[in-house]
């Protein structure tokens, strides 16, 4: 008599989603590092300063752009700022500066989470027809708090997911615990960049 029970897959749907997202992150990281080396080899130091010097050598402006980007859903990949801190040392030793960047990113996410909690009774936000919002509302409906884990360690827009988590009623302690992986992600990516740059 045949066995009618079905074996559970080795990796469930959540696991596959997490792995795909992390692999996408490494792909983006590889592309970014490739572009960085391309620019470094194609342009002399004087040419690079001519193109990027006004921003590159202004740590206050760079940090302002970074904070704005992290609050506005990570519109600039954080690895760019890691490379900047590695090259310039403007905010201290490399891994110290990465720690600062990771805390800012974590704080930006927590700020957005609390903004989300303030607007959670605004049903119009969660029912928005905006394609960007709808995409992540659907993912949050499907994966719940697990989406915070994925966003913390992958290229998914971390602050956008944080906002959605607050609006969707995710428990504060759960959010705080899951989103700490954001700091781990920064150091993991920073370590890879450090190995490549040595």
Quick recap of the structure?
The chain is mainly α and 198 residues long. It contains 11 helices and no strands. α5 (94-118) runs antiparallel to α11, α8 runs antiparallel to α9 (158-167) and α8 (146-153) runs parallel beside α11.
Give an overview in words.
By secondary structure, the chain is mostly helical. It has helices at 13-42, 45-56, 59-71, 78-88, 94-118, 123-126, 131-143, 146-153, 158-167, 172-179, 181-197. It is globular. The N and C termini lie far apart (62 Å).
Task: Lay out the secondary structure.
Blueprint: H1 13-42, H2 45-56, H3 59-71, H4 78-88, H5 94-118, H6 123-126, H7 131-143, H8 146-153, H9 158-167, H10 172-179, H11 181-197
Helix pairs in contact: 1-8, 3-5, 4-5, 4-11, 5-9, 5-11, 8-9, 8-11
Assembly state: single chain
Number of helices: 11
Q: Into which percent range does the helicity of residues fall?
A: over 70%
* Unreliable residue runs: none
Shape: globular
Compute the gyration radius: what is it?
19 Å
């Amino acid at each position: 008599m045949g066995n009618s029970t079905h074996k559970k897959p080795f990796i469930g749907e959540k696991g596959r989603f997490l792995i795909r997202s992390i692999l996408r992150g490494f792909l983006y990281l590889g592309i970014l590092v490739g572009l960085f080396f391309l620019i470094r080899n194609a342009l002399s130091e004087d040419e690079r300063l001519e193109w990027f010097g006004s921003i590159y050598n202004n740590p206050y402006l760079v940090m302002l752009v970074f904070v704005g980007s992290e609050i506005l859903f990570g519109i600039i990949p954080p690895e760019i700022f890691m490379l900047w801190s590695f090259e310039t040392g403007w905010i201290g030793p490399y891994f110290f500066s990465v720690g600062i960047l990771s805390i800012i990113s974590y704080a930006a996410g927590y700020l957005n989470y609390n903004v989300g909690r303030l607007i959670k009774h605004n049903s119009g936000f969660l029912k928005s027809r905006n394609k960007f919002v709808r995409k992540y509302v659907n993912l949050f409906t499907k994966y719940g708090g697990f989406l915070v884990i994925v966003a913390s360690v992958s290229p998914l827009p971390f602050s956008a997911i944080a906002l959605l988590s607050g609006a969707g009623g995710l428990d504060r302690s759960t959010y705080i615990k899951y989103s700490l992986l954001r700091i781990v992600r920064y150091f993991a990516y920073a370590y890879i960049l450090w190995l490549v740059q040595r």
